Amino acid sequence: MESWSGIEVPRLPGAGQPLYLYDSARRAKHQSQPRGRAGLYVCGITPYDATHLGHAATMITFDLINRLWRDAGHDVVYVQNVTDVDDPLLERAARDNEDWVVLAMRETALFREDMEALRILPPEHYVGAVESIPAIVTRVQELVDRGIAYRLEDGTGDVYFDISQAPDFGYESNLSRDQMLIFSAERGGDPERPGKRDPLDPLLWRGIRPGEPSWPGGSLGPGRPGWHIECAVIALTLIGSTIEVQGGGNDLIFPHHECSAAHAEVLTGAKPFASHYVHAGMIGLHGEKMSKSRGNLVFVSRMRADHVDPMAVRLALIADHYRADRQWTDDVLKAAEQRLARWRAAASAPAGPSGALLLSGVRAALTDDLDTPRALLLIDEWADAALAGTGDDTVAPGLLAETTDALLGVRL
Fold first, then answer.
1. Which residues pair with 328 in a beta bridge?
2. Which of 319, 329, 361, 403 has the most CB within a 10 Å radius?
3. Given a cut of 90, is residue 286 above it in pLDDT?
4. Rounded CA gap, 151 and 163, in Å?
5. Could you write out the three-class secondary structure of 136-150?
6. In sequence order, which ranges of 217-297 are alpha helices (DSSP H)?
C-alpha cells in the first residue's frame, strides 16, 4: 500500500534533546532511548469513514515524536497499518450497498490527502491488513502449534488466543479484570461468547462466513484475521521483536494494545513489546464525546473544503496536551487562526529576541512529554516581543519559521 508524499523538514542548528514520554504501562515519564533505528508503530484507520479530528489529533501526536527523534539525530522506522478488512468496514459497505473494497480504497485515499494537508511525515511502511494476511496466517498457525491458541469446537473455524499462556497479560493497561471485561464488550471483543477458555481471550482468526470475504488460511481453514494479531505481526515483520513506541488513541489501551503486546511477546519471548505505550486523548465537540454513533464528527476534508487552513487545525489540536481529553469548539479554531496569523506576522518582522534561546526553549518543552502548551506559549511571547520591535536578532524570524516547521509541523 502506498504512503502519502513526503515533505522536506528544515535542519535546525545545534543538537536536539533526549525525548521523555509517558508510558501507559509504567504510568510515568521515561526517557526514550532508541537502540539503532527508533521503531514507531502507530495504529491507523479502519477506512469506512473520512478522517475526523480525533484521527488528526492522534496522527499529529506521533508526528511530533517522529520529528523530535529526527531532530535528535535518530534514524526512524515508522510503520502505520490500515485495517482494510474488519467488521465496521463490512457493515458500512452493506448499509450503503457498496463494495467494501471500493469503500476502503476511497477513504484511504482521502486519509492520505488529509495527512499531506496537515504536513504529517509519511510512514516508511504503510501497510494494509489484507496484504499482511499470509504473514498473519503463519504466526497464528505457530501459536496453534505451540498450544497457545485454540480452535472453538462449534464448527465456525474461529481461533482464539489463550491469555493464560501470557502470564504478564494486563501489565500494559493496568486494568482490573472487571474493567477489562467491560472494555472488551465495548471495544470489539466478545466476552460472552460460549466455548472460549476465558471470556477475555481475543480472536486470532475468524472462520469463513456466508457473504463475508475470506482468504486461504492453510490448516486454519479459510477466513480472515483478528484485529490485534494484525498489528502485532506487521510490527514484528517490519520493525522487530521490540519497538520503541506503540501508539494510538487512549481507546486502544485495552483491548487492542494489551492483546497485540501479548501476541508479540509470546511469539518472540522479548519483553516488553514496546518500550513506551503512548496514547493520545479523545476529541469532543461542544461538550459531547465526538463519535460516529452520535453523528457529530468533524471531518478534516470538510474543513479543507471550507477553506480552513490546515495549519490552524494543527495548531488548534496541539493547544492542549496530547494526553488530555479535550473539546473542539469554534472558539478553539478561532484562537488557533489568530495565533497562526500572529506567528506569520512575527516571522516577517525585521528582527526579534534571541532565536537560539527560543529554539532551546521549544526543544525543552516538546521533549518533556510533548508539552505543546508550553512550547506554544514561548512562541507567543517571542512573537509579541518581535511585533513590538523588541530584540535585535535579525536571523531570529527565519529561525522561528524553521523551528515551527521542523518541530511542530506548522508552516508559516
1. 285
2. 403
3. no
4. 14
5. HHHHHHHHHHCCCEE
6. 227-238, 258-268
Burial of 313 (0-12, 13-18, 19+ CB in 10 A): buried
How many C-beta atoms surround the C-beta of residue 141 within 10 A? 18
Q: What is the pLDDT of residue 289?
A: 73
Other C-beta atoms lying within 10 Å of the C-beta of residue 199: 16
Cell of 76: 526512524
For 22-76, the pLDDT digits (tens) are 999 999 999 999 989 999 999 999 999 889 999 999 999 999 999 999 999 999 9
What is the spatial distance between Cα 397 and Cα 380, in angstroms, rounded to a whole number? 13
Instruction: Specify the DSSP class assigned to residue 245.
Output: E
What CA–CA distance (Å, rounded) separates 313 from 45? 19
pTM summary value: 0.97
Q: What is the DSSP letter of 397?
A: H
DSSP symbol at 391:
-
Cell of 77: 522506522
Q: Is the pLDDT of residue 292 over 90?
A: no
Residues whose CB is less than 8 angstroms from the CB of residue 243 and which lie 6 or more positions away in sequence, other chains included: 39, 40, 41, 235, 273, 274, 275
Whole-number pLDDT of residue 287: 78
Interacting residues of 42 by C-beta distance below 8 A, sequence separation 6+: 58, 59, 62, 78, 79, 80, 123, 247, 248
CA distance 203 to 298: 32
The dihedral built from the CA positions of residue 71, 72, 73 and 76, taken in this order, carries a sign that is negative
Instruction: Show the cell assigned to 338.
Output: 489568530
Q: Phi then psi for 92, rounded to 5 degrees?
A: -65, -40
